[in-house]
Design brief:
Elements: H1 4-12, E1 16-20, H2 30-40, E2 44-48, E3 54-55, E4 58-61, E5 73-76, H3 80-93, E6 97-100, H4 111-119, E7 123-126, H5 139-150
Parallel strand pairs: 1-2, 1-5, 2-4, 5-6, 6-7
Antiparallel strand pairs: 3-4
Domain CoA-binding: 11-105
Pfam family, one: CoA_binding_2
InterPro entries: CoA-bd, NAD(P)-bd_dom_sf
């Protein structure tokens, strides 16, 4: 197994990242926060929500297969019960880096999605947030990483 720090660095080395579950009414929804921050950092980031045509002022895609030229990595920021379908789509498209977002509560983590992804060669980060790790980390997320790591919400190994 890979350490969380190594897995996060590999995930964040991707240049084209999709964020599923980005909300039409942004607020502080986890998917939208991740989407905005990655966009600000210069990543080529793609919003995915089958119920929206536009999110955060950008085009929104109904699914991963609709993104022109595909992506290298995916952040799942949906309800856990939709995570397995998203993971199956990732496997079908050959996407090998998936991060299931979780801060407080269950977040987007699905045991079935994690197991399916890993069984099919996907590096699955099942908890935490990409914004907790360099180069995407800000002070608030670094502090959250310490708290959530001690609470077992951020995996030590993936």
């Amino acid at each position: 197994m890979t350490t969380m720090k190594q897995a996060a660095a590999e995930f964040l080395s991707a240049k084209r990242i999709a964020v599923t579950g980005v909300s039409r009414s942004p607020g502080e929804h986890g998917g939208n926060v991740v989407y905005r921050r990655l966009r600000e950092l210069g990543y080529e980031v793609f919003a995915v929500n089958p119920n929206a045509e536009q999110v955060e002022g950008d085009r929104c895609y109904p699914d991963l297969a609709s993104i022109p030229d595909g992506v290298e990595a995916v952040v799942i920021a949906t309800r856990p019960e939709t995570g397995e379908a998203t993971m199956r789509e990732c496997v079908g498209l050959g996407i090998r880096q998936v991060w299931m977002h979780r801060a407080f509560g269950a977040g987007s983590v699905s045991a079935a999605a994690t197991e399916y992804g890993r069984r099919n060669g996907v590096t699955v980060i099942d908890g935490g947030c990409p914004l907790m790790f360099a180069p995407a980390a800000d002070f608030g997320h670094r502090a959250m990483r310490l708290v959530l790591s001690s609470a077992g919400k951020v995996p030590k190994r993936v």
